């Protein structure tokens, strides 16, 4: 082609020339690879031709070529800029050379003209090319290609080159030396890579002359930059770059961190030389990969060079910068579609360059980063995994648990095998709990990809394992700890910086379901922050210009910005040296992660207040007040981010003030302690001047006093932190000596919002004035009298027809009562008169419409107001999208709604009690999850399988908080979903939902709402309906009416002769009969035989139902005194029945265990004692009693075999207290029970029996010995344990009774009680439980049935591993001693050994308190208020000594009361 073109040129054949140009263009368009640049260069050559037609044709072709490759011209240029520039230099240089040689001898004048002409020619050439590639002007083009032009020109090292350089610098209007110096790093690295040794020397000499700077100084101009540029080419030109680096090293300045030999020949030396510069080099590589102006080829070159660099640097140096190296490699992964193989190679090279020690900690990072490549480059990716997991198994052993998410892929088989083996070794079963623990660790991982991956797989896990999770949450009295931990972790996850991770946390909370907050245990909260990597960029802010307050100003539009800006501003005010340094270092992170800001702000504030001026303090005060006073009703409508701002910022201010208060309290204690110490040192009589610390304390306290408590209370009320609002409001009334009468309105509103009807009533009780309408309404609403509330609202509307708030109230009450049609009529009526109220009132009619399943009205109402987005409107939108089968908008809205619920949750999760405070939103996530699962089949294509197993609705409802507020929204949504999906039996299911609503409302005392639900349920003809109706009448106090309805219902649903066949109807029948019996008993209008018959019918109908047996036994027990005129001897027969039925009820469940177990034992043991007396006195009816007792003993023996040992453990103290029973046969049975319990739970039983075994009463001691021997006989391994426990008790008694002289305040374990210390530290010493309250009280299963293998002591146990050396002697009368036990779990436990005090009564009282706690836990309302008595373990060691669990941070009730009495 070239030849043909030259010929055409010689023969001046222009047509041939044009044809050839076109052909060249075609070749370029059709080809890939090396032919493209060839065609392009040829066309450029033509473009510079003198003939305009040729140039024009070439111009068109070049543009067409770019268009064919469908890239923009400038991008097309960047792709081939190296070859284009080379071509440019050649053509410019040759034309310059030609001109110089043509004009040897000319006058100065001529030369000047000539050079001007030359300059013109050169610039023309450049302009032509700039133009064809669409550069707007020449200068832009030049600055773009300087880095490539100059190295090529410098390599020429000729006068002509200097000429061109001069031309360019003139055009760009800069000094020629400057151009060379600034681009020296590019020139040098080019020369090093592409020139021979002589050329290099020549070029460097030339540069020295051109710039008039010594080579050493030139090199040191941008020393790090030179290294970076050179290393960028190490992948392709290893040896040349190595030599270039040696040149650099030989010119290193004296203060360079590298001080090794100057002439570097070996790679080891080179690595040592580069090591100090390595971080800079990596940062540069990262920028190369990130920058959008750098072409894909250059990025390839960078990655290749990175591999070469890793090989050069070697294990030691790469391991040191492994984290930065990974960041760079991760950046490289952005181009996994462009060069996947290279990406794999670089990672492979990286893991092989690491020291084995570090492989484990990076394991999950590497694997998560490479997972996306597994389908593109399976072999190479698997090789990396194989190297990490199979070849280095020992090194990564401890981290394998993090890799639980590898996909099933044939190429990963070998790796999966290793992982499975590992799992087998570590967990005996791959159970759900372990999986969840691993999941939780991964959710808190510092790498966001790992977090998102973990959350996605957790969501799956939660859905697949619903059954087990529901068991964890409801099967026992306490929730499995793993559930509490999971909720905590997910709540913290709601603050994640990444929005996708936040959403996933919300979805997981929804899948898990809204577990009742009263049942979760959040005591162990370790709130670890996440390590995140930050880009270190910092714009310098001119603080004086920032508008104050920052909140809601330009820089305070969203939370992250506001918090970072304010914190940054405050840091500038810190006067304390060290603190200011520390905070300044942290300020870089604040821009990226508001968690850091939230954590630091309280500390920054303290330091600012310690040294700030009056106006600074005023500024801070203004900022805080701006946040607290911001009433965001206006903001809430405009956008969602505004509410995010107000929630989170208010919460941040709370944390800051809390921190200040704590700080002040701590300082105050410290200062008072110092003062007390100074007082006791009588020498320093002269009072010192108030210390600096006191001044600091004063300034903080003064600042805290500035902030009005009532503002804080109002702000807390707005952000739904009601408990905090009460705290601030109470202190407002106390401190400001307010007249409480003026503020009752707010207090009442608060109690109503907290759902504390007692509080609302209390406020009414102390109100002196007549209650206003508004206050009456509050009272009615808080106790569920919504009808009365509606009447009050009606009156209010008559008085003030313009107040929209009354309409809100009426409609809310109607919704609460379930009168949905009325709601729609009411709202439509109001809006007809006042259409401007639509945005406010529309949400109510939307809610009513979807609850009524009126889809057409719903669509109209939603259209009426397009921009409101309250919760009920959102649900309406979702249901409507599903109805229209519009999957896209459904899922889009769903994501938005979930995100809206997470904002307030993340605000709540910054403090204790967050779950309770955010529970409303958790319920919403729970509802969204059910909505998504039940509508998913509708939104799929009709042919896909619709019958997927969906959620277990019944169980999910069971585990939520047992309150009307929590359950009603869920049930209402379910009814809407059922009428939308129209399943087969949907009428029945809707009926069941209404019944559940009725029950929930009745239990909450909302009788009016319950009535409406019953009316709605009536349609479904369910047999449970009558039971619920009767219970409703009963709870209204109309027991007689209830009984009549119930008896009718039983007649109707279960006619006499038919026995219901299926289990469900049987159960309903039984429940109805039992209720009839109880009503008959309560109304007391029936004789006892009729009642008895009803109860017996129940046990006949349902022989395996605990309630039937329990109520029957209870009724027998109630009748016993009247039937037998209180004479013990006549009671034998009856007692037998009572014992039989109590025992049976226990066999089938534990609901009434604390009533039936103790009563059953008492009746039996008392009868035994009586029989022994009769026998002794020789009374005439002793034979009768003997046979009765024998029968009962037989029954009890049967029970002993049938019932589980933990059931007897609940009454263990009662059993132990009766071991001196006078009747021999009774004792034999009693002993059998105790032995059974002891063998099952030796640890707990041993501590409970110590007092008896060390008793001073010989018969007790001997009987106890007998029992223990029997236990050893039954289970020989207990022998050593009992021996050790007895020795331990003896030593502890010795410790209790050790007499102490007056002035000793401590004793030492290793000096005074050597033998005790030695005993416990023996190698063979048995495991003996540390007797904490938590492991002494059994937890019971909460579902009916015999749970013979139930574990009554879940959670970890700690055994005694040793003692702390110091024994503290307390100052009270008996001189009790405080000892520290070291647990096998690594924690320390404090106990108090108390002499000369009979602790048996205390012990019983604590057991009683534990029982009260169980009752409080059972009741939903007391659970919600977290009502409980703080208990501690009391272990009597004999009749007058014992040990007591020490509880930190408590004040005794007596001291509190005495103080209060004194104040009065």
Percentage of β-strand residues? under 5%
Given as residue ranges, the uncertain stretches (5+ residues, pLDDT < 50) are 525-539, 632-642, 943-948
What is the straight-line distance between the termini?
A: 113 Å
- Quaternary structure annotation: single chain
Overall mean confidence score, pLDDT: 81
Secondary-structure-derived class? mainly alpha
Shape: elongated
| Helical segment count | 74
Please provide the count of β strands. 7
Determine Rg (CA atoms, Å). 43 Å
The major beta sheet can be summarized as: 7 strands, antiparallel
Percent range for helical residues? 55-70%
Provide an overview of this structure.
With 1464 residues, this protein is mainly alpha-helical. Helix content is 69%, strand content 2%. It is built from 74 helices and seven strands. Strands 1, 2, 3, 4, 5, 6 and 7 form a seven-stranded antiparallel beta sheet that branches. A hairpin with a 5-residue loop joins strand 6 and strand 7. Helix 43 runs parallel beside helix 45 and helix 50 packs parallel to helix 52. The chain is elongated, with a radius of gyration of 43 Å. The protein starts with a helix and ends with a helix.
């Amino acid at each position: 082609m070239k030849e043909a073109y030259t010929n055409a040129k010689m023969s001046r054949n222009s047509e041939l020339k044009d044809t050839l140009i076109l052909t060249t263009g075609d070749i370029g368009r059709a080809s890939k690879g090396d032919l493209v640049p060839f065609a392009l260069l040829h066309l450029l050559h033509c473009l510079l031709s003198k003939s305009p037609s040729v140039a024009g044709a070439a111009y068109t072709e070049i543009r067409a070529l770019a268009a064919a490759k469908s890239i923009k011209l400038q991008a097309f240029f960047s792709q081939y800029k190296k070859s284009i520039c080379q071509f440019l230099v050649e053509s410019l240089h040759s034309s310059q050379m030609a001109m110089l040689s043509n004009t040897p001898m000319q006058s100065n004048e001529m030369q000047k003209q000539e050079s001007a002409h030359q300059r013109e020619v050169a610039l023309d050439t450049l302009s032509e090319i700039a133009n064809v590639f669409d550069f707007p002007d020449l200068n832009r083009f030049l600055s773009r290609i300087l880095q490539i032009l100059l190295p090529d020109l410098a390599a020429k090292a000729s006068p002509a080159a200097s000429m061109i350089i001069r031309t360019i610098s003139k055009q760009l209007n800069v000094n020629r030396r400057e151009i060379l110096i600034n681009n020296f790093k590019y020139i040098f690295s080019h020369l090093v890579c592409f020139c021979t040794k002589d050329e290099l020397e020549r070029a460097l000499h030339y540069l020295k002359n051109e710039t008039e700077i010594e080579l050493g100084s030139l090199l040191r101009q941008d020393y790090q930059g030179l290294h970076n540029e050179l290393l960028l080419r190490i992948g392709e030109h290893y040896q040349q770059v190595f030599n270039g680096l040696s040149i650099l090293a030989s010119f290193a300045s004296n203060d360079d961190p590298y001080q090794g030999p100057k002439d570097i020949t070996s790679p080891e030396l080179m690595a040592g030389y580069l090591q100090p510069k390595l971080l800079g080099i990596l940062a540069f590589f990262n920028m190369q990969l990130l920058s959008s102006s750098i072409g894909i080829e250059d990025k390839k070159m960078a990655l290749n060079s990175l591999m070469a660099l890793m090989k050069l640097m070697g294990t030691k140096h790469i391991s040191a910068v492994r984290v930065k190296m990974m960041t760079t490699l991760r950046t490289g992964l952005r181009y996994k579609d462009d060069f996947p193989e290279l990406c794999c190679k670089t990672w492979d090279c990286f893991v092989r360059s690491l020291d084995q020690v570090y492989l484990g900690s990076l394991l999950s990072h590497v694997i998560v980063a490479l997972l996306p490549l597994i389908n593109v480059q399976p072999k190479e990716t698997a090789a990396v995994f194989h190297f990490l997991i199979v070849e280095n198994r020992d090194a990564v052993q401890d981290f394998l648990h993090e890799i639980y998410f590898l996909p099933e892929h044939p190429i990963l088989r070998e790796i999966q095998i290793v992982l499975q083996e590992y799992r087998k070794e570590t967990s005996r079963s791959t159970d759900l709990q372990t999986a969840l623990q691993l999941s939780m660790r991964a959710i808190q991982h510092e790498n966001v990809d790992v977090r998102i991956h973990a959350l996605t797989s957790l969501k799956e896990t939660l859905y697949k394992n619903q059954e087990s999770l529901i068991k964890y949450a409801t099967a026992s009295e306490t929730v499995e700890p793993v559930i509490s931990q999971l909720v905590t972790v997910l709540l913290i996850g709601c603050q994640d910086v990444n929005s996708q991770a936040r959403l996933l946390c919300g979805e997981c909370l929804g899948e898990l379901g809204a577990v009742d907050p009263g049942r979760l245990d959040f005591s162990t909260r370790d709130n670890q922050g996440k390590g995140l990597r930050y880009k270190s960029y910092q714009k310098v802010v001119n603080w004086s210009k920032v508008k104050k307050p920052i909140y809601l100003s330009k820089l305070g539009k969203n939370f992250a910005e506001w918090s970072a800006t304010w914190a940054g501003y405050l840091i500038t005010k810190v006067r304390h040296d060290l603190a200011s340094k520390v905070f300044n270092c942290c300020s870089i992170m604040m821009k990226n992660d508001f968690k850091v800001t939230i954590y630091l702000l309280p500390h920054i504030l303290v330091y600012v207040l310690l040294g700030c001026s009056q106006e600074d303090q005023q500024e801070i005060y203004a900022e805080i007040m701006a946040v607290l006073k911001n009433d965001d009703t206006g903001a809430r409508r405009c956008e969602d981010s505004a509410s995010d701002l107000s929630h989170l910022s208010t919460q941040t201010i709370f944390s800051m003030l809390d921190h200040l208060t704590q700080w002040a309290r701590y300082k105050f204690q410290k200062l008072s302690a110092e003062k007390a110490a100074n007082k006791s040192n009588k020498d320093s009589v002269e009072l010192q001047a108030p210390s600096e610390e006191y001044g600091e304390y004063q300034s903080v306290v003064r600042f805290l006093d500035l902030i009005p408590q009532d503002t804080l209370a109002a702000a807390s009320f707005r952000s739904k932190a009601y408990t905090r609002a009460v705290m601030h409001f109470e202190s407002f009334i106390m401190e400001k000596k307010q007249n409480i009468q003026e503020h009752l309105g707010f207090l009442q509103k608060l109690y109503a919002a907290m759902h504390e009807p007692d509080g609302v009533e209390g406020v009414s009780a102390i109100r002196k004035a007549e209650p206003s309408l508004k206050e009456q309404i509050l009272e009615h609403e808080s106790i569920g009298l919504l009808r009365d509330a509606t009447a009050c609202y009606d009156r209010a509307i008559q008085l003030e027809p313009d107040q929209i708030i009354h309409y809100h109230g009426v409609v809310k009450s109607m919704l609460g009562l379930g009168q949905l049609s009325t709601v729609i009529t009411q709202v439509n009526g109001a809006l007809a008169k006042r259409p401007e109220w639509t945005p406010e009132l529309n949400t109510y009619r939307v809610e009513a419409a979807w609850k009524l399943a009126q889809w057409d009205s719903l669509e109209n109402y939603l259209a009426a107001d397009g921009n409101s987005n309250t919760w009920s409107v959102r649900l309406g939108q979702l249901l409507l999208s599903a109805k229209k089968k519009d999957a896209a908008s459904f899922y889009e809205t769903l994501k938005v709604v979930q995100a809206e619920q997470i904002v307030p949750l993340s605000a709540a999760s910054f403090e204790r009690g967050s779950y309770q405070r955010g529970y409303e939103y958790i319920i919403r996530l729970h509802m969204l999850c059910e909505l998504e699962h039940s509508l998913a089949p509708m939104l799929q294509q009709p042919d896909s399988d619709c019958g997927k197993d969906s959620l277990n609705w019944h169980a999910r409802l069971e585990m939520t908080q047992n309150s009307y507020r929590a359950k009603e929204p869920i049930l209402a949504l379910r009814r809407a979903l059922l009428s939308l999906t129209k399943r087969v039996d949907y009428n029945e299911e809707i009926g069941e939902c209404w019944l559940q609503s009725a029950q929930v409302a009745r239990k909450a005392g909302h009788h009016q709402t319950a009535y409406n639900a019953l009316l709605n349920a009536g349609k479904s003809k369910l047999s449970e309906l009558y039971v619920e109706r009767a219970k409703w009448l009963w709870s209204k106090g109309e027991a007689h009416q209830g009984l009549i309805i119930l008896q009718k219902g039983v007649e109707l649903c279960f006619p006499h002769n038919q026995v219901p066949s299926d289990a469900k109807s049987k159960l309903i029948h039984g429940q109805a009969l039992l209720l009839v019996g109880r009503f008959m008993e309560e109304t007391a209008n029936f004789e006892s035989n009729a009642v008895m018959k009803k109860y017996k019918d129940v046990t006949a109908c349902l022989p395996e139902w605990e309630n039937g047996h329990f109520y029957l036994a209870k009724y027998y027990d109630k009748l016993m005194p009247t039937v037998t005129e209180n004479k013990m001897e006549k009671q034998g027969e009856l007692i037998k029945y009572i014992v039989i039925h109590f025992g049976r009820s226990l066999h089938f469940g534990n609901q009434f265990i604390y009533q039936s177990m103790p009563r059953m034992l008492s009746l039996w043991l008392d009868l035994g004692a009586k029989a022994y007396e009769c026998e002794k006195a020789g009374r005439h009816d002793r034979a009768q009693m003997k046979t009765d007792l024998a029968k009962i003993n037989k029954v009890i023996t049967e029970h002993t075999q049938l019932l589980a040992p933990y059931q007897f453990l609940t009454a263990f103290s009662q059993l132990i207290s009766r071991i001196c029973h006078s009747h021999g046969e009774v004792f034999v049975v009693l002993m059998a029970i105790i032995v059974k319990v002891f063998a099952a739970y030796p640890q707990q039983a041993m501590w409970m029996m110590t007092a008896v075994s060390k008793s001073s009463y010989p018969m007790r001691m001997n009987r106890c010995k007998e029992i223990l021997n029997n236990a050893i006989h039954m289970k020989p391994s207990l022998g050593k344990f009992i021996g050790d426990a007895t020795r331990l008790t003896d030593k502890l008694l010795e410790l209790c009774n050790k007499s102490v002289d007056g002035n000793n305040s401590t004793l030492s374990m290793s000096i005074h009680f050597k033998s005790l210390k030695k005993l416990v530290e023996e190698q063979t010493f048995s495991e003996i439980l540390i007797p904490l309250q938590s492991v002494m009280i059994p937890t019971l299963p909460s579902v009916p049935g015999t749970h013979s293998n139930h574990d009554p002591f879940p959670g970890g146990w700690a055994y005694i591993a040793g003692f702390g050396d110091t024994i503290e002697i307390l100052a009270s009368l008996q001189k009790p001693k405080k000892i520290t036990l070291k647990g096998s779990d690594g924690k320390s436990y404090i106990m108090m050994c108390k002499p000369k005090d009979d602790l048996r009564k205390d012990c019983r009282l604590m057991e009683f308190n534990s029982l009260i706690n169980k009752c409080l836990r059972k009741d939903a309302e007391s659970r919600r208020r977290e009502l409980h008595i703080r208990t501690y373990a009391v272990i009597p060691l004999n009749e007058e000594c014992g040990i007591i669990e020490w509880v930190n941070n408590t004040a005794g009730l007596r001291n509190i009361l005495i103080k209060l009495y004194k104040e009065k």
